[in-house]
Design goal:
Elements lengths: L2 E7 L6 H9 L6 E8 L5 H9 L5 E6 L4 H11 L4 E4 L5 E2 L3 H8 L6 E9 L5 E5 L11 E4 H6 L12 H13 L2 E12 L13 H18 L3 H4 L6 H13 L8 H11 L3 H6 L7 H11 L3 H12 L3
Parallel strand pairs: 1-2, 1-4, 2-3, 6-9
Antiparallel strand pairs: 4-8, 5-9, 6-7, 6-8
Helix pairs in contact: 6-7, 7-9
C-alpha cells in the first residue's frame, strides 16, 4: 500500500537531512515522499536534491514563502497514496512508524494516532506521550487520503496557531473513527525559537474554534471520549494555553496582565468546576493544582520559564 508522507520545509538545512534519512529508511518501502520548500533562503533545496539523486520516491515542490499550512495543502493536492502522514522538517520518525500504523489500518475511514517523544535539539528528552489522542498535532498520525479530499479538509491558511488541531478535528468529524498505536514513534524536536514558542495574537480565537469543533464531534462520536486528552476541561485547557502563549518572549502582555487574566478565571464557575478533572500531563498538573489554591503568580513564573526554554 502506498503511503504519502508530506514534509513542509522552511530554512531546514540543519535538520532536514536527519528527517529525510528517517523517512527514506522506513521498513515499509512503498512511500511517496513529498517535500514542499516554503521559500527557504538557505541550502534546503540542496539537501533535498542530494536525497533525490538516490531515492526516486521523493517529489519536490518549491513555492514562495506562504506558511506551513499552505505548504501542507500543496502536499495534499499532490498526494496519491491511499493514506497520508505529515512529518515536520525539524523532526524525525522511528524506522517502523509507517509499518506500525499500517498494522492498525484496516481500510476503513479511520485516523491512526501514535505517541511521540518531545526532545530538545541536543537530544535531551523532555517527555514521552503514548496511548492518547493528541489533537494539537497533525503529525504522529495517519489519515485516509479519500476522507481528506472528499470532505475538502484543509489547513486554514489564515491562522498561524491551532491550525493543526482544527485540521485534525475536521478529519475526526468526517471519519468518526480513531485508533491508537501505544508506542512513541515520532520525535518532536522542540526549539524555543520555533513558531510554537512565539506569541500568537490569534490564539484565543483559535481556541474557541477548537472547543466548538470538539463539542460537535462529541455529539456524534461517543468513542471520542476514550482517546481525547482534554475531555470535559476545555475551559481550563484554553486558559492554560492562553497563559502559556502570553508568556512568550516576544509577547506584549505584561506579567501583571497575565496574572489578572488568571485571577479572572478564578471567578468563572465553569472553570472552577473543571478544575476537578484529573490532569493528563505534567503541565496540566501544575496549572490545575496551583489554580485550585489560587497561586496565579507562581503559575506565571513557571510557565514563563518553560515557554522561554530556561
Amino acid at each position: 500500500m502506498k503511503v504519502s508522507v508530506i514534509i513542509p520545509a522552511y530554512n531546514a538545512e540543519k535538520t532536514l537531512d536527519k528527517c529525510l534519512e528517517s523517512v527514506t529508511n522506513q521498513t515499509h518501502r512503498d512511500l511517496e515522499i513529498i517535500v514542499v520548500n516554503d521559500g527557504s533562503t538557505d541550502q534546503t533545496e540542496s539537501v533535498v536534491d542530494r536525497f533525490r539523486e538516490r531515492d526516486d520516491r521523493i517529489k519536490y515542490f518549491a513555492q514562495k514563502n506562504s506558511g506551513v499550512s499552505h505548504a501542507r495543502n500543496v502536499g495534499l493536492d499532490a498526494a496519491y497514496g491511499e493514506t497520508v502522514m505529515f512529518v515536520d522538517s525539524d523532526d524525525y520518525i522511528e524506522p517502523d512508524m509507517v509499518e506500525c500504523f499500517l498494522q492498525m489500518y484496516d481500510g476503513s475511514p479511520v485516523m491512526v494516532c501514535g505517541g511521540y517523544i518531545k526532545e530538545k535539539p541536543d537530544g535531551t528528552i523532555v517527555r514521552t506521550e503514548t496511548g492518547r489522542f493528541f489533537r494539537s498535532y497533525s503529525t504522529c498520525k495517519m489519515y485516509v487520503t479519500d476522507i481528506i479530499k472528499n470532505n475538502h479538509i484543509r489547513f486554514d491558511e489564515k491562522i498561524s496557531l491551532q491550525e493543526d488541531a482544527i485540521f485534525v478535528l475536521d478529519y475526526v468529524y468526517a471519519s468518526r473513527n480513531c485508533v491508537v498505536v501505544d508506542k512513541p514513534l515520532y520525535h518532536y524536536v522542540w526549539n524555543a525559537k520555533s513558531l510554537s514558542a512565539r506569541y500568537s495574537p490569534s490564539l484565543e480565537e483559535s481556541e474557541r474554534i477548537v472547543i466548538s469543533k470538539t463539542k460537535r464531534i462529541r455529539d456524534v462520536y461517543q468513542d471520542f471520549f476514550r482517546y481525547d486528552t482534554q475531555r470535559d476541561n476545555d475551559e481550563v485547557i484554553m486558559a492554560m494555553k492562553i497563559e502559556y502563549n502570553d508568556c512568550a518572549i516576544d509577547s506584549p502582555v505584561s506579567r501583571r496582565e497575565r496574572i489578572a487574566k488568571l485571577k479572572k478565571c478564578y471567578k468563572n464557575p465553569i472553570f472552577l468546576q473543571q478544575l476537578k478533572e484529573k490532569p493528563k500531563t505534567s503541565m496540566d498538573r501544575v496549572f490545575i493544582y496551583l489554580s485550585r489554591v489560587r497561586m496565579a503568580g507562581l503559575i506565571d513564573t513557571i510557565f514563563t520559564l518553560v515557554k522561554r526554554g530556561k
